[in-house]
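Tokens for Glycerol dehydrogenase. Go.
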Amino acid sequence: MSKFVFSSPRKYIQGAGMITQLGENLADLGSSAFIVADKIVWGLIGKQVRESLTASRVEFHYEEFNGEASSNEITRLAKLAKSSGTAVVVGLGGGKTLDTVKAVADELKQPVAIVPTVASTDAPCSALSVIYSDSGVFESYRFYSKNPDLVLIDTQVCARAPVRLFASGIADGLATWVEAQAVKRSHSKSMVNGDPTIAGLAIAEACEKTLLTYGLSAYEAVAKQLVTPAVEAVVEANTLLSGLGFENAGLAGAHAIHNGFTAVDGDIHHLTHGEKVAYGTLTQMVLEQRPDEEIARYVRFYRAIKMPTTLKELHLENASWESLLKISELANSDGDTLKNLNPNLSAEDIANAILAVDTFSQSVK
């Protein structure tokens, strides 16, 4: 029997200067907040956050994020949050901070507010976290009974972040429709364990259309720290459309191959989530035998926003066949989503596709 599920945050707010409205929106969730952010993020927006919460009479305790969305970090922060007597958990920052905060809130069974400071991933809106080891190796997905209670994104803050992170969000978002089509075709389940809904698929398709239509001009604007209508559209696509799309329509090869890259050591770990997802998306397209010109269109677009399309750009040009198999085996593991693309692929098939992307990309003019 088919089961259709659609999941989303309770409230999503986006716009330039919205960080000043954080306090009044948090007040609806609780009178005391446990705030998690890394040192850099807190240095950039901590003053505005303090002023906003103080104006709305929301007490808060700030704790520094240690940098990895691991079980140990979740346990550490959950203990501190519990001892501080918090009523709502708040995450400020990028994907790993936000994934960690969702887990902390789940441990405490409290509301969670998500405040992305970069439009670099689709993590903010979802009811799941990607959990890594303390050394950064992918371990599992952790699922929750509900999505965040509040997602508040200040586009002015995002536009001041490095443009590389903005481009990474575009690359992450471009995987959404590619993977959704694979899930629909294979009759697999979405990330909320239902058949992909019409709404989820429509949102995923709108995500791709928005990014390919406005992505380059938005990228150029953010490079100058400007907020334009195109930037607003792309921030929404990177964050809301991609988040709702991947969760309600599902993941397949692109993100599984990203996770596979965590199996090897080296400079690849200096790349962002979206940069590795970009290469994973191209690898999925090769495995699907998509038309050459369709793959080439993605290659050209990725190049325009400085995303990697070759093994050299991934710092894997000297990777051995054994290393590529190690990547492929982790990507193809039972705990990941590559089988939503094709359950009959071997590690050798995936490794060959990773190499084929490199060869094809170099041939694209």
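The chain has a mean pLDDT of 96.
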